[in-house]
Specification:
Layout (H helix, E strand, L loop, with lengths): L5 E7 L2 E7 L11 E3 L5 E2 L7 E7 L13 E2 L5 E9 L4 E10 L4 E7 L1 E2 L5 E8 L6 E5 L8 E5 L2 E8 L6 E8 L1 E2 L7 E4 L10 E4 L1
Length: 203
Amino acid sequence: GALACRLDVITSASEDFVDIGVGQNGSFAGVDTTICPGSSVQISAFHPDYVAYQWSPSAGLSDANIFNPVATPDSTTTYAVVAFDADGCSFLDELIITIADSIKAVATVVDETCSLDNGSIVLNVTGLDAGGTYQWSPNTTTTTASATNLTAGTYHITLTNSITNCTAIVVDSVELVSTAIDVNVMVSPSSNLNPTAGSISLN
């Protein structure tokens, strides 16, 4: 007999779709995923029976009318997709793209004085999970949020989350500071009777 499609109105992200479908929609939009802040991911709703696609919301998508757009959302977003087959029937599915927490770090720097290798950098970090790592460059012996006995120079610290593999890079400099030293000079003059009796003392 003639193919009959049901008629539904679907509202998603302020856009209305007329969903004319038969049978069960099924799952074809892929799995939910998590990406790092500022990153992109290609999503796909391909099915061999579908000939046209419409994603919503369109914001953050490279093309809302193809089956595999590149998504660059600013925040965690649920994307709905309506796929149409050759008979004009349509099917709905959705997926969620979650934006991982940002890694943020504030550095407290103590400069090196008098070439004594006594500089330090201590990071106050948020957004790094319990298994997160610190990689310092130039290489130091530390793998934590603080490094001591530093010489003057520029340091790059890469922070990496163990679950999402998201990273943040902190760049900071340790300066070389020359500290003035107050010196008191005391001179005792020699005499003709004892020419070796003179002395100089520094305090």
